[in-house]
Amino acid sequence: MSRERARPWRNPTPLEGFTPEWLGQFDTFEDWVNHASRALTELTLEGGIGNTVAAICVDTKGRRCSCGHEFMRARDDGSFPIRYFITGTVALSSDQ
C-alpha cells in the first residue's frame, strides 16, 4: 500500500457544536490511579439494553487519554484534571 495514498480517516469532518455531558473528573494522577477502575467501569447509557460503554477521557489540552502512558504524559506536562464522558449533545446550526 502506498504511503502517498490519501487516508480519509486522518482528516475527519469537524463536529461543530458538540458538547460532552461530563460524568466526572480526576483532579490528579493519584486520583486516576486510585479511582479510575471504579469510576470508569460498568457505565451504561440511560435507556440502553444493559450494554456497558467505554468512557472517553480528555485532558485540559483536549487530548484523549485512553491508556496509562497518556495519563502519565498529562501528569508530566500539567494537563490534569482529566474529565470523562460517554455521550454528548450536538447543537444544530440555525441554517439547518
Descriptive report:
- The chain is an alpha+beta fold.
- It has one domain (19-89).
- The chain is built from two helices and four strands; from the N terminus they run E-H-E-E-H-E.
- The protein has helices at 29-39, 68-76; strands at 18-26, 56-58, 64-65, 82-90.
- It has a four-stranded antiparallel sheet.
- The longest helix has 11 residues, at 29-39.
- The radius of gyration is 16 Å and the shape is globular.
Give the gist of this structure.
This protein is an alpha+beta fold and 96 residues long. Helix content is 21%, strand content 24%.
Output the keywords:
alpha+beta, 96 residues, 4-stranded antiparallel sheet
Order of helices and strands: EHEEHE
Fraction of residues in H or I helices:
10-25%
Please, how many helices? 2
Number of extended strands: 4
The domain tally reads 1
Which stretches of 5+ consecutive residues score pLDDT under 50?
none
What Rg do the Cα atoms give? 16 Å
Q: Distance between termini?
A: 40 Å
Mean pLDDT: 84
Spatial strand arrangement across the major sheet: 1-4-2-3
Structural class label: alpha+beta
How much of the sequence is in beta strands? 15-25%
